[in-house]
DNA sequence: CTCCGGGCTC
DNA sequence: GAGCCAGGAG
């Protein structure tokens, strides 16, 4: 565990306001509460956090239940084929995450006796597990004390602590800033981590800030200064319509619809407007291990 | 820094 | 149509 950073009085006030607010207003999500942790434990947390990477909560919920019913343990998932895994991932997006989770399950079985590691560095070594997911598992599955920083946390810190509407792009420093807000007690620290994400998701949004219902309004530098606009350092997201990503998605959707069966190459996106783009998409899917290519056929990988 | 899904909202 | 979403890898 990292050594507790010294807390300022302001940091203590933030935690003192956040914890009761969270107990009162937290959404009733499936991965909160004892039933989930008791049934699925750290594996359920790892699966849910992976699905939640860049995919909204409301879309994850039904897929998570189905996934854990089919593969209730890392060993069960490790025994599946990539084709089954990619098919089950369905339309959650960024399907490389499904392969990473599959490979992580194999590593958990081979190197950790089938149990999810508790150590952050061991978690970080798993494919598809980065700074956010590693600490989310350590904190929400095992109850340890670490800073957990996601897009919500970064935005809340930018506003409350720095008085800026928008956060800078993700940086290592974010972890230190969050660590400075954490109480010494493990459970309180976990609650503050969860509450910062919840606040950003439900009250202090990217598009709208409902300061009238915010437990941190009295502490918030951005609110106190009258919501200054400030400069916007966000990077613009590439256009999706007509992109290679869209082509990849269409190829994979066709192969999922064919289940594990192979499809003739010419039948996959036969009417795609840009043939070169279609071929580029297929090649990149093969490179990622999401598609297997034969002389004239494609299929999900076995 | 760029790439990587897909659905929903403003 | 553009931005956003419990990010991660190369």
Automatic annotation (TrEMBL):
Entry's EC annotation: 3.2.2.31
One biological process term in Gene Ontology: base-excision repair
Query: Which family, according to the similarity comment?
Result: Belongs to the Nth/MutY family.
Instruction: Enumerate the SUPFAM superfamilies for this protein.
Output: DNA-glycosylase
- Give yes or no: UniProt keyword Nucleotide-binding: no
Q: What residue ranges carry the coiled-coil annotation?
A: none
The record's listing under PROSITE patterns reads: ENDONUCLEASE_III_2 (PS01155)
**Is Transport given among the entry's keywords?**
no
Q: Which InterPro entries match?
A: DNA_glycosylase, Endonuclease-III-like_CS2, HhH-GPD_domain, HhH_base_excis_C, HhH_motif, MIG/MutY
Domain (HhH-GPD) ranges: 51-202
Q: Which PANTHER family match?
A: ADENINE DNA GLYCOSYLASE
Reaction(s) catalysed by this chain, per the record, are: Hydrolyzes free adenine bases from 7,8-dihydro-8-oxoguanine:adenine mismatched double-stranded DNA, leaving an apurinic site
Q: Which Pfam families match?
A: HHH (PF00633), HhH-GPD (PF00730)
Q: Which GO terms describe its molecular function?
A: 8-oxo-7,8-dihydroguanine DNA N-glycosylase activity; adenine/guanine mispair binding; iron-sulfur cluster binding; metal ion binding; oxidized purine DNA binding; purine-specific mismatch base pair DNA N-glycosylase activity
Q: Which UniProt keywords apply?
A: DNA damage, DNA repair, Glycosidase, Hydrolase, Iron, Iron-sulfur, Metal-binding
Please tell me which top-level EC class this enzyme sits in: hydrolase
Which cofactor(s) are needed, names only? Answer: [4Fe-4S] cluster
Protein name, as recorded:
Adenine DNA glycosylase
């Amino acid at each position: 565990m990292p050594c507790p950073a010294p807390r300022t009085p302001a940091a203590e006030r933030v935690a003192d306001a956040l914890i009761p607010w969270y107990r009162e207003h937290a959404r009733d999500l499936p991965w909160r509460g004892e039933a989930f942790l008791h049934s699925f434990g750290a594996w359920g947390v790892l699966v849910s956090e992976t699905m939640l990477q860049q995919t909204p909560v409301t879309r994850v919920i039904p897929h998570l239940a189905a996934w854990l019913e089919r593969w209730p343990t890392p060993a069960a998932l490790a025994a599946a084929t990539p084709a089954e895994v990619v098919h089950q991932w369905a339309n959650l997006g960024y399907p490389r995450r499904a392969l990473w989770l599959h490979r992580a399950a194999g590593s958990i079985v081979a190197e950790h006796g089938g149990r999810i590691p508790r150590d952050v560095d061991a978690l970080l070594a798993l494919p598809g597990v980065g700074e956010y997911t590693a600490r989310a598992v350590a904190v929400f599955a095992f109850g340890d004390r670490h800073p957990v920083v996601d897009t919500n946390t970064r935005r809340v810190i930018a506003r409350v602590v720095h008085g800026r509407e928008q956060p800078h792009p993700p940086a290592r420093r974010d972890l230190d800033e969050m660590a400075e807000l954490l109480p010494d007690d493990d459970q309180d620290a976990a609650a503050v981590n969860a509450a910062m994400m919840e606040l950003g998701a439900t009250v202090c949004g990217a598009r709208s800030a409902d300061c009238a219902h915010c437990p941190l309004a009295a502490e918030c530098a951005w609110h106190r200064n009258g919501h200054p606009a400030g400069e916007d350092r966000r990077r613009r997201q590439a256009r999706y319509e007509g992109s290679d990503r869209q082509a990849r998605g269409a190829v994979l959707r066709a192969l999922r619809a064919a289940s594990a069966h192979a499809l003739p190459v010419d039948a996959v996106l036969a009417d795609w407007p840009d043939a070169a783009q279609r071929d580029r998409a297929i090649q990149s899917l093969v490179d990622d291990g999401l598609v297997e290519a034969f002389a004239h056929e494609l299929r999900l990988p076995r």
